Amino acid sequence: xxxxxxxxxxxxFTESKLTFINGEEGILLxxxxxxxxxxxxxxxxxxxxxxxEGKLPTATELAQFDAHLKENRAIPQxxxxxxxxxxRGINPMQALRTAVSYLGLLDxxxxxxxxxxxxxxxxxxxxxxxTIIAAISRTQEGHDxxxxxxxxxxxxxFLYMLTxxxxxxxxxRLFDIALVLHVDHGMxxxxxxxxxxxxxxxxxxxxITSAIGALKGPLHGGANExxxxxxxxxxxxxxxxxxxxxxxxxxxxxxxxGHRVYKNFDPRSRVLRDYAEHVxxxxxxxxxxxxxxxxxxxxVDRLGDKGIxxxxxxxxxxxxxxxxxxxxxxxxxxxxxxxxxxxxSVIEYSKENSLLRPSSVYTGEKDAHYVKLQDRx
Length: 377
Description:
Elements: E1 19-22, E2 27-30, E3 33-34, H1 35-41, H2 44-53, H3 59-71, H4 77-84, H5 92-106, H6 115-140, H7 154-163, H8 169-182, H9 189-198, H10 204-216, H11 223-234, H12 237-249, H13 267-282, H14 288-303, H15 312-322, H16 330-350
Antiparallel strand pairs: 1-2, 2-3
């Protein structure tokens, strides 16, 4: 009998110094530092650079990196036109996938897979993802794209390009924390897909386009949007307990609850829960947070002893919603954060590259023979 690891669960194919996860104890570390400390003290820019370099940057290194990001925020006019001409009503992840692939066509360095080129391309993609996603959102609504500003943080600039209004420093910081929480998460499906593409010695744009395709799937990147659909279905806090209890009694899935890795509270969820409450009280345009509180209590009471708790998607949607972001763009925002982790993982794996070529267990016939077409029944 050959043992098969369904979904590659527990299979280790490489080493990494970037991210450590202990699902049993609810621990997430980047470069050995708890995610809670990154969220409280750092920024998206700093964590991105730290993962690329494998260490905490100096103030000078971070300032240089930030300057390079700002210098590369604008996207080529040809790509802007492609985004403008995209059909209305398309899936934003389809649009992002196409835009990134086209961006590669315009980059004369795209075929260069040397470490220096990979890093340069990474900086450009981190910088331009926000511009691309904001442009897709605005053009899909029939508005003109908003040009990036050089005087705003990465998070603040995205919110500005998305809405056309400069966000408050508090709004920028809240969104920055949400990005930090999503930058990297070990060998998830999209990161593994990027590495698998990279292992063939393909270019960075192909790796990231592959990752976007994997993230597009609802089992990976679409959970926070599904949580918002659930909240709309629940309606008000007083209906939440009965709604969830009925689903649990019918053994139906609760969106944003449970995780493939975590058998304890997702540490990102713990961080985001506090900020979600703050956003709800400060920006609150809905009663989403109160509904989530009731759902969490009901789920933990019923399923906590089975290791099923809310994950990061449970609260991220309400933060985005209360910041004025449409739910169909929650997954592109996931990509906006994860681009740094994708690229850092590809670069790390490329240092000791090995072509990924797993095998499967054959379950078909072994003594069949070809039957001519006219003789088949």
